[in-house]
Amino acid sequence: MDYQRLVECFRSLALQAGDRIMEIYGAEDFDVRAKSDASPVTEADEAADALIAEGLAQAFPDILVVTEEQAATHGKAADTFIIVDPLDGTKEFVQRRGDFTVNIALVENGVPTRGVVYAPAKERLFYTGADGVTVEEQGPFDITRAGTLTPLSVGRPDNGALMVVASKSHRDAATDAYIGKYAVRDMTSAGSSLKFCLVATGEADLYPRLGRTMEWDTAAGQAVLLGAGGKVVRFDDHLPLTYGKAGYENPFFIAYAPGVDLKAS
């Protein structure tokens, strides 16, 4: 695998998709409808998906691409595949809250090893380099050339008191009960895969998710966190969260900095 070429492609496609998403986001109105599972989909999801899928097919014709917006890909499987969520955080997009991201990841033997998370409305870009180390690139962003890069590393909990990040749209009593098992210094909320990135930068220590997610929601964020020294485990048994599962559905999980002493579920 030519990781340098792969990372450059992922980065470029994420930025191009982000530009297209922001064109639609800036319009006075845009089309929103419900999918079969009642979740919202917009013309921005579909435009970004088409752009990314075409770019990946041209660059890596021999690698399976699984993408949220193409149901025909959800029944396919391979040891090595690329997985895409062209617009994670559609609810945040529709409500114009800004916490939405473009996500592209490479999965190898169950592990997301390279990934990019781009939050165009917040102008934040995170990705794993060819060496597997996660960086945050400083804007403004040039599609053809990377700018200033800051290597990321997870933080160390402050005297055991944690900064916790949780979902804006999917917070529930079970999540609050689990968070209550920890000494919490402060809490913040974020939408989409940005929660993984906040742990990767050290802006948060713990992100528990006790709700339904799909692999395309989490793969790029997990790659970013792993490349910064973080971990993502299943909620029930604390074994690593793996990819390529039947139906691409995740169990509940916990993303965290290794200095966190995980509590039993």
TrEMBL record:
By what name is this protein known?
3'(2'),5'-bisphosphate nucleotidase CysQ
Is Hydrolase one of the keywords UniProt gives this record?
Answer: yes
Q: What is its EC number?
A: 3.1.3.7
Organism for this UniProt entry: Plastorhodobacter daqingensis
Predominant location: membrane
**GO molecular function terms here?**
3'(2'),5'-bisphosphate nucleotidase activity
What family is reported?
Belongs to the inositol monophosphatase superfamily. CysQ family.
* Pfam families recorded: Inositol_P
Q: Report the PANTHER family cross-referenced here.
A: 3'(2'),5'-BISPHOSPHATE NUCLEOTIDASE 1
Catalysed reaction equations from the record: adenosine 3',5'-bisphosphate + H2O = AMP + phosphate
Keywords from UniProt, A to Z, are:
Cell inner membrane, Cell membrane, Hydrolase, Magnesium, Membrane, Metal-binding
Tell me what topology the record assigns in the membrane. Peripheral membrane protein
List ligand-binding residues for Mg(2+) 1: E68, D85, L87
Binding of substrate, residues: E68, L87, D88, G89, T90, D217
Can you tell me which residues bind Mg(2+) 2? D85, D88, D217
Checking InterPro entries in the record gives: CysQ, CysQ/Inositol_MonoPase, Inositol_monophosphatase-like, Inositol_monophosphatase_CS
**Which top-rank group of organisms is this from?**
Bacteria
> What compartments host this protein?
Cell inner membrane
Q: Which cofactor does it need?
A: Mg(2+)
Q: Is Membrane found in the keyword set?
A: yes
Instruction: State the function annotated in the UniProt record.
Output: Converts adenosine-3',5'-bisphosphate (PAP) to AMP.
